[in-house]
Amino acid sequence: MSGSEPGSRRPDPSTLPAEYTITWLEMTARPRTPVPPAPSGIALALLTAENPPTHWFLYLYRSVGEAYLWDDWVRASEAERQGFVGDPEVTLHTLFVDGAPGGFFVLDTREKGRCDLAYFGLMPETVGRGLGNWFLMTAIDAGWQRPGVERMTVNTCTLDHPRALGTYQKAGFVPIRRETRPLR
């Protein structure tokens, strides 16, 4: 489905910038503040998938990332996707909100001492319900609970949600590198 068709969440290609900037961030110590309480009045469940099927990962990835032009895993081969989500050092966590998928995060500890928050996001219909900070801090807490973690990393870019960079910094991540690239 192209960006101009009804129902698409992809941006209109004519409104896209010629380039985008990626910011890599790092956290070298576990946050001292505890995970805030989950918002009340919303039925929430956070489930970790054991060796998830790639179609589940792609569903979450597309649902969250379509509006932000996430497409690397869509273009990857099935073997590449299975190699990623099937790796025991990669965990897929799905947030259910009122019984339906509401967001997800992926923790990647394949590099010794590092937990990368490889993917994080809320479904469009879940954004604005007061879950973002709680969900991010929950993901960070889960990352620091992984054995041997000495630092956490994440990256975002100017194509992501406009508040993404500031939200990561508010949570304790510090920018360590930036790079500007052409948008294909």
Q: Secondary structure elements and their pairing?
A:
Blueprint: E1 19-27, E2 44-49, H1 54-65, H2 72-75, H3 78-85, E3 90-97, E4 100-108, E5 114-122, H4 132-145, E6 151-157, H5 164-170, E7 174-182
Molecular structure report:
It is a single chain. The chain is of the alpha+beta class and 184 residues long. The protein has helices spanning 54-65, 72-75, 78-85, 132-145, 164-170, and strands spanning 19-27, 44-49, 90-97, 100-108, 114-122, 151-157, 174-182. It has a seven-stranded mixed β-sheet, sandwiched between helices. The model is unreliable at 1-7 (pLDDT under 50).
Could you provide a short overview of the structure?
The chain is of the alpha+beta class and 184 residues long. Helix content is 24%, strand content 31%. A 7-stranded mixed β-sheet has the order 2-3-4-5-6-1-7, sandwiched between helices.
Give start-end ranges of low-pLDDT stretches: 1-7
Q: Average pLDDT across residues?
A: 91
Radius of gyration: 16 Å
**Spatial ordering of strands, largest sheet:** 2-3-4-5-6-1-7
User: Which class do the helix and strand fractions yield?
Assistant: alpha+beta
DSSP, total strands: 7
Helical proportion, percent range: 10-25%
Our estimate of the beta-strand percent is: 25-35%
Counting H and I runs of at least 4 residues, what is the number of helices?
5
Order of helices and strands: EEHHHEEEHEHE
Overall, the morphology is globular
N/C terminus separation:
19 Å
Biggest beta sheet attributes: 7 strands, mixed
